[in-house]
Batch of 4 targets.
Target 1
Amino acid sequence: MGRAGLTPERLTLAGAELADEAGFDQVTLSALARRFDVKVASLYSHLKNSQELKTRIALFALEELADRVADAVAGRAGKDALTAFANAYRDYARAHPGRYDAARFRLDPQTAAASAGVRHAQMTRAILRGYDLAEPEQTHAVRMLGSFFHGYVSLERAGGFSHTDVASQESWAWTLDSLDAVLRNRAAP
């Protein structure tokens, strides 16, 4: 394939696919050029460097994940919303491991503030409103949920739960039940 049809958007999507196949750390302009059978120099008219490519993939992944979570939680509240949010997050990490890693890519503050990462926080806070948490409890809960989701998914992906007869799904459900109980218990009087 030649240069025809290359755009920043097409290169971003191809980079996201490459991240899922080979790992986000393997995404480079050289690897992308090989994918399109072009010279690396051909990509510089569309992307400044690998940093821009990785940033674009991160923004794409954040947007894609936010859309999935929003669809999952629409019309739900309380534990149902919490569970839908958590399951959408976990399912995305399983289906798109490289994109999931990209969503954790460190963005500069201005880019982060304009990204779908803001939607993630807003959706988490919307779910937590159903638990009637006042500040600073709500901020603590946002951090707790983010830490739990990321930690569980990361350990699961690394095979950390494959050493016992208890299925990972059982522990996932148990932990979501526990998180719901903790959040209900911390509600404002």
Target 2
Amino acid sequence: MKLAFISDIHGNSIALEAVLQDIRKNKIDRVYVLGDLCYRGPDPKRSLALVRSLHTQVIKGNADEWVVRGINQGEVPEQVIEMMRMEREWTAAQLDGQDIEYLASLPTEMKLEIEGIAIHAFHATPDSLFEIVLPGAGDEVLKSKLMSASDADIFIYAHIHRPFIRYMEGKILLNIGSVGLPFDGMPKAAYAIVEIEDGQIRTSIERVPYRIEDVVKQYEEVQYPNTEMMTRIVRNGLVK
């Protein structure tokens, strides 16, 4: 069974289309989505429609929660909260009531069993949509924050936009990176493949090129509230 896990699309439908094409090329059996579907990109409506067209399990990310109810004080640095609220209002205005209701109804984790292998997937941590656990954290931190809530064989999360794979005490910890806004210096869409066959497990991080300048043009054409910063991130694959 060949599984694809995608996340952190952030309204970048062009990157999502490239990833879905790559998924078809790789003959994936099932696709799962770990949240952050719409917010901070120039094409939230189409991004959400593409996700929904997959007819698969989808969980909520922090950005989906923000689209539904706004950004609370203390959830982002004070110096950026007003701009991020403007971006959230722009995003919500591109969606309709059914879209918002769909985002609000999403669960916050998924537990799968594939050919006897247990997978626990969530957006940031099992207990939070917002907590940041980076790949450089020590083994004890990774285990306590990400791997202590269940007895799974594979733990999969997103949120940090920096993909990695770690093996600890017979378990696999996998961050699948970001489709629409990678932060690791490689401006290519990221997703993960997990293949399970006869007890054997293969994991990989895929990096997919897409039409970055078309996304930049979209930001400019829709007059996105934070175009300069967001196009810099898209072009460079870095926050700064």
Target 3
Amino acid sequence: MSEAPVRLAVLVGSAREGRFAPTVARWFARQADRHGGFAVDVLDVAEISLPLAMNGEGAEPVAARLEAADAFVVITPEYNHSYPAALKNVLDWFRGEWQAKPVAFVSYGGISGGLRAVEHLRPVFAELHAVTIRETVSFHGAHGRFGENGEPVDPAAETAAKALLDQLEWWARALQEARVMRAYPA
């Protein structure tokens, strides 16, 4: 009997006009599909309309998709040595949806490849009771790291994505099993 696929929510974390995030997200979603252990749902912060004031209105469709996920991958650029405000707004709107689930990061940016954004996201997810995994994929100078076909020019990106997905699948299955055995004490 084969295991059901891990329900993976890929959160595209940039809403800027002219953003590079969709290129990275499309590539990563293809990697997750090829991996074979995941059913992928892409949520784009540019398409999520949540007001800054958290009054509970309009959050239900996003909440349902996040709640359904067994694991998350956040695609984030680095803006001013951190992550985008639109991404922070989506994170802050929800709490229980993230709890006791694994989170991985794919980042991009200038010289740091978005890794400073990732380091700022880790304590936010810790506060949300999510488990961030060690493996990441990052692209420094991202525009020059992808060809016209939307694929990375360096084959090492695929190797890094596979390592991330292998680890994420392990954590997703382990935490899913734990949530079934006992309720998470939030």
Target 4
Amino acid sequence: MSDVRVHNFSISLDGFATGEGQAPGVPFGHAGERLHEWMFATRFWHQMGGGRGGRTGADHAVAALHGSGIGAEIMGAGKFGPPGWQDDPGYQGAWGADPPFHTPVFVLTHRPRPSIEMEGGTTFHFLDASPAEALKRAREAADGQDVRLGGGPSVVRDFLSEGLVDHMHVVQVPILLGRGVRLWDGLESLEDAFDIEAVSTPSGVTHLTFTARSR
């Protein structure tokens, strides 16, 4: 069976994966881009945008694992768009005509709408479903490849709570946000279900890799 994977998921030292005050043009609220500056400096990020340059090294190598072997993605409504996007029937996501996923993407929302086929192989499907139900749909679409869980923190937390995550890469960034949406709330003793490795890099971040133990 295919794995469920989380990649390049950045959190602050106090566990917040997004700040407070999300709005159009401010997807991470008062956190701004601070959670992801480590990634913006990598060659992986430059290549994602079709450019050159960027640093190689450990941050690049780990970030570049993001796309390998992925056949579908699941994301929450908050990742697909800012608060209120459901009220705009023409809204097609925050990534333009050719989103970077190039796979089927399943957006979890209490207000489903018809699927949207984009350029480059991305099709957005909108589901009002439990994590297990959404995963079943995504695995069918992935055709034997892995399913990436794209976030946000509430969605990742829900899948962790139900024991549905096989591999998780969390990047702890040395900032304090103080408010927003935390990843770890309600996940007491999560470490018992995973083997965990930690690697710090010269950029100041710590890469935490969680690999599920045999169930």
